[in-house]
Amino acid sequence: MKSVSIPSEIVESKIYLIRGKKVMVDRDLAALYGVETGNLNKAVKRNIERFPDDFIFQLTDEEANSLSFQIGSLKRGRHFKYLPYAFTQEGVAMLSGVLHSPRAVQVNIAIMRAFVRLREFIATHKELAQQLKELERKVNKHDKEILIIFETIRKLMTPPPEPPKRRIGFHAD
Prior knowledge:
By secondary structure, the protein is α+β, with helices and mostly antiparallel strands.
């Protein structure tokens, strides 16, 4: 069996965030697996019981258009002939049971590794985001304290108001 080498950057660049889920689109998967998009979708439809709604969903017109702008693959004024299907990580894993070829197995392994790396990357960013939020909170607290110090210094630098001058002469109250 010949091993298929797919750079992780290529796989990771084909993972999109749609409806709050990390997904891969049917035509990108078909290209990676070396099959036609229509044949991939036919294999899925023949085994539709393996693909519940949380494994695969069809994009709306708006999502498909947004995706075409993200990836820049369609020429201006052109549209998808058919609305693409989006596969979640679980849906991609299920594809290995539907597509029977050595290439499909190798591609699936590469895709699963990319999803895992992406999840680890996001987890790291969540930790960094939390630390940044804590730092911002501390800085805001210090900013308020620094502003109070500057305000106090300004008050000290301001000369005291001159006492009212006494009027000269005789005054009747």
